[in-house]
């Protein structure tokens, strides 16, 4: 009996470990391939090519015209998105779909000029959404001709965040290649003169205030507390030690970097406030804002005690697993996301204005200053931003000519402020997920999913089936 109980206990421990691994890993099976792409799709002056990585799974494909589910890769290693887009994997058996994840040029291992890709503008200048979409056109065209049974397959594009923007634009610009798009948390309106720059910060703050007004006030008061404590070397040394920083604070620029890190952390927590443990930007518990706010309870504390509170909240974000030995303010999310490449895109065509006033939001006041932003871009990359380029290329709010797109937005997600929140037409529809954070609907099914995301996925599947039926009917006539 004692041995039996020990064995049962051992099996329970193993089951618990497997459950945790599934929560935090959610590994999916795929084969990795590379396709030779043109560096420049829009001229005949540059003959250079590079290898674009893509992932493919045909476990559920019927090999006879079943649909192709195509993920339009984001600003990062494509494996990160393959592991965090469970919706595609969940519904692939139902649709007998071929699943493909394509990596965005200049991210992951798809570097057109290898280690030199970001060294000179003549190499980096081909990092644009237009070139990336042309990559996807070339890849899909090739695969439909190379894979037996895929010639007449319906192609459905999926994407979340920037990938969602690409999925929507893919359908708009190349409707003969993509028959429909699921664009989740896609801020295609987060551009100059379309979305007010203050809306994003207001929603981040609202997410924390809803959990606890005191929590939001701790963050609001933390900026002045940091300034107060770091006025001298002793204060810099104290904060370095109190926050277990990997590198000591020494200069005003270090303080600016620390504050930028905090802005990113509070924003990221709002983005990934999922109802269950997840490992997208960082390993986090269910409802991470709730857990963080459990530590941020005394907004009227003196500077040092207040900052000690803040650090306890930060620990939930950067060290939930207990594996981190120190806080690295230069690493604010999963290393597979590439802030460096995105900085170039933000300095060219993806100019998204953000501003904060410290009253309607809990951030340090920071007006949007395009001239200063542009000058920084030029100093960093040797380019000046084109703030209206994306709007001119893709239409901004004027997308009435588009068709077969489902835009989904969670109202906890600050990026929803730049999303399409209304039905544009009968075939370009908006699904609102009140309890949803950043592209929650694209994540795998979970017992703790709110009813609104379950309903959204059902509607998405209905649209996908309609697109398949419409496209297939062309070959049945």
TrEMBL record:
Name the UniProt record assigns to this protein: Lysosomal Pro-X carboxypeptidase
Protein family (similarity comment): Belongs to the peptidase S28 family.
Keyword Disulfide bond: yes
Entry-linked Pfam families: Peptidase_S28 (PF05577)
Annotated GO biological process: proteolysis
Catalytic activity: Cleavage of a -Pro-|-Xaa bond to release a C-terminal amino acid
EC number: 3.4.16.2
Lineage top rank: taxon: Eukaryota
SUPFAM superfamilies on file: alpha/beta-Hydrolases
InterPro entries: AB_hydrolase_fold, Peptidase_S28, Ser_carbopepase_S28_SKS
Entries under Gene3D superfamilies matching the protein: alpha/beta hydrolase, Serine carboxypeptidase S28, SKS domain
Organism: Cherax quadricarinatus (Australian red claw crayfish)
